[in-house]
């Protein structure tokens, strides 16, 4: 009997790839649960999902059944050994609880690099040049916003610091190289893959003091929650800027808003917030910041790549016992 | 011997903004500097016969239009006989009638290169924004709609960027977008030699460029030959679902044809920094949220502005000290 795979959520771009990758080796069932209680019953012995060996998980399923927290991991059937999360960020998945049940969690790094880095470049340019404000001003019937020259800068010659240089950060560095910025980064340890024209700074506060723009690019976990707080923001130069395409809670949002209000930060470019889809009204009311609704990977190519990578993890698990991208905690 | 007299025709209230120090110390070292205060065009014509009747060179900024209007044939002919140089602040100099200047033996300079980085940055931004549909996304956040109603967007990765008018701005923009895995092709009247120092392909017909490009970027000057030159025929030659980016001049494009191409879906999106009748913008563009619009922001930074002001001074200093203009306009160099 073919191993059973449960699809939790929707496959938007890769229905065909799902057919091609999984149908030859597995029986695919699509989640038909209206509530968390019902899903847990379906996982329980005798339920229709009680024999799934792997799960494809997509976050919109949370609307119906909630996030894959400890309770859900405990409710999964004994047979389930692979949890393929679609997305690079997997802070919504309780990996520790999964490990306790012998379940490997995979994510989809790499698939998001280009789209996220492109979004970051957009936010960077928009902040330094105040383009969000300029477009809003034009569409409201104005033209050149008063004072924009005074507050806008060319990227060339300015310093950008990357907090958390991983594959997204490296892609981002390659994108911004022609703009002539001085590029530095801080990780707990230097990244061996870092390009030569990117300077490592071992002390985070030293980096913060040097940057005109801070680009937040680390994963969200217990060590990085609130990493950029009041002290860190005030270590930055007056008039500097923040760009965040990682996760909202890495930055202390209250401290960031305060710094915007008193001008210590002259602008921020955000694709992520602490409590999406809600956005603090104080940010919405600021014309000089750029805000996007977590669209870092909201395009056809990145979405398809993520879906395919998650499916590939399941296919390889079923055929070889191991997928290509288990999360670091599960290796 | 007294220093030659020069006139600053910049912003009527602010004058030169970022380089007042250099105006005094560098330009002032070789010339007697007057700041124009004519309140109207007629007053300016009078002043040209009076207090400005001995000026040799003019620093010109588009902001002077507010007081004295364009540097058209009428104004050029009203300038004093002593006037030999008009040094324009800006890469585009369509507000100056160069033929009228040439007829009067007045040489004109502009500020290429000083505008390249700032303008190319706008072009790269507009390309990304149009493809990724970021304007709508931003509006959604501020309206509390989050991702509601957003259509699937596209990436620059793997797309063909066609540059019409590969010059300083076009090259800089190409270099900025190549790392995004865009392929660059360009059309100029003649292939550039020596070849560009970045990967790009010359195509010898504009039609071929239009048929192959996913993103078309206009990077050519506005003059009699190019005015309205991008119209129905050109849009029909573009790929279905392509993107137009314009950081050149609004009047290069036939606006009615452009609006039709947007409405019909021929164009997936557009990124526009320039308009035919600034600061007025066609309401049909303003009401279109699938496109990205900027109010001529190409060089709206203190960094670019200062570079441009200094470049004008450098041209003036070179000219009045007998070394000729550094950046004389193309039409006069033949």
Structure notes:
The complex is a heterodimer of chains A (about 325) and B (about 325). Chain A has about 325 residues and is of the alpha/beta class. Chain A has two domains: about 5-110 and about 300-330, 3-Layer(aba) Sandwich (Rossmann fold), CATH 3.40.50.720; about 115-290, NAD(P)-binding Rossmann-like Domain (Rossmann fold), CATH 3.40.50. Chain A is about 35% helix and about 15% strand. Chain A contains 14 helices and twelve strands. Chain A has helices at about 15-20, 35-45, 60-65, 70-75, 95-100, 115-130, 130-140, 150, 165-175, 205-210, 230-235, 255-260, 280-285, 300-320; strands spanning about 5-10, 25-30, 50-55, 80-85, 105, 160-165, 180-185, 200, 215, 240-245, 265-270, 290. In chain A, strand 11, helix 13 and strand 12 (about 290) form a beta-alpha-beta unit. In chain A, helix 1 (about 15-20) runs parallel beside helix 14. The two termini of chain A are about 30 Å apart. In chain A, about 50% of the residues are buried. The model of chain A has no long low-confidence stretch (mean pLDDT about 95). Chain B is of the alpha/beta class and about 325 residues long. Chain B folds into two domains: about 5-115 and about 300-330, NAD(P)-binding Rossmann-like Domain (Rossmann fold, 3-Layer(aba) Sandwich); about 115-295, NAD(P)-binding Rossmann-like Domain (Rossmann fold). Chain B is built from 13 helices and twelve strands. Chain B has helices at about 20-30, 40-50, 65-70, 75-80, 100-105, 115-130, 135-140, 170-175, 205-210, 230-235, 255-265, 285, 300-320, and strands at about 5-10, 30-35, 55-60, 85-90, 105-110, 160-165, 185, 200, 215-220, 240-245, 265-270, 290-295. In chain B, helix 6 (about 115-130) crosses helix 8. The longest helix of chain B has 19 residues, at about 300-320. Chain B is elongated and about 70 Å long. Chain B starts with a strand and ends in a 14-residue tail after the last helix. At the A-B interface, helix 6, helix 7, helix 8, strand 12 and helix 14 of A face helix 6, helix 7, helix 8, strand 12 and helix 13 of B. Chain A: GO terms for molecular function: glyoxylate reductase (NADPH) activity; hydroxypyruvate reductase [NAD(P)H] activity; NAD binding. Chain A: Belongs to the D-isomer specific 2-hydroxyacid dehydrogenase family. Chain A: Keywords: NAD, NADP, Oxidoreductase. Chain A: This is D-isomer specific 2-hydroxyacid dehydrogenase. Chain A: It holds the Pfam family 2-Hacid_dh.
